[in-house]
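Homework help board

Subject: predicted structure for assignment chain

Our instructor gave us this sequence and asked us to write out the predicted structure in token form, then describe one feature. I got the tokens but I'm not sure how to describe them. Can anyone check?
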Amino acid sequence: MFKPSMFCFSILVNLVFLGVASYCNADTVPIDFDQWEVKVSNGRIQTIQFSSHPMGEALESRVQSERGQSVNYAGRYHLFAVGCGTMCQSFIAVDVYTGKIIDSVTASAGACYFPDSSMIVVNPEIYQMYDGQLPDWAFTRYYRMTQDGFLEFYKSKEPYLGQCNN
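My token output:
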């Protein structure tokens, strides 16, 4: 009769541990907008302080049309895109209460965001644009809004598979 030794048992435990660790570190970690839920205010942009951000003055003519717009991102920000070249969009966040341009993030393939979440997914469909053969520079990037601006917390070569409303 075969009795497993402590050695065999430890190998089995290590294999299970490595399998779990590999799964946890996989490039397909599910990330959901609900993880970064915020309360949504009903403010609108009254004025924009162009001097509040280094890009502000250069964007003044493009940003004028955003006055009066309501919150559409992270509870208190209005997020909008301006073109910055071929396959380039700059998503700019304006605090609807202060009018300050808080930050911007650049994308090649759009972005997904919601009024009640501080997360933004940049380049959610870039994987499809290149038929899965992504260039070295191409990633789907995940950011969350902080008081200081966008903070990247994850990037992946895999596409974002969740819901996107924009």
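Reply (TA_rk): Your tokens look well-formed. For the description, you could write something like this. DSSP finds three helices and seven strands in the chain. That's the kind of observation they're looking for.
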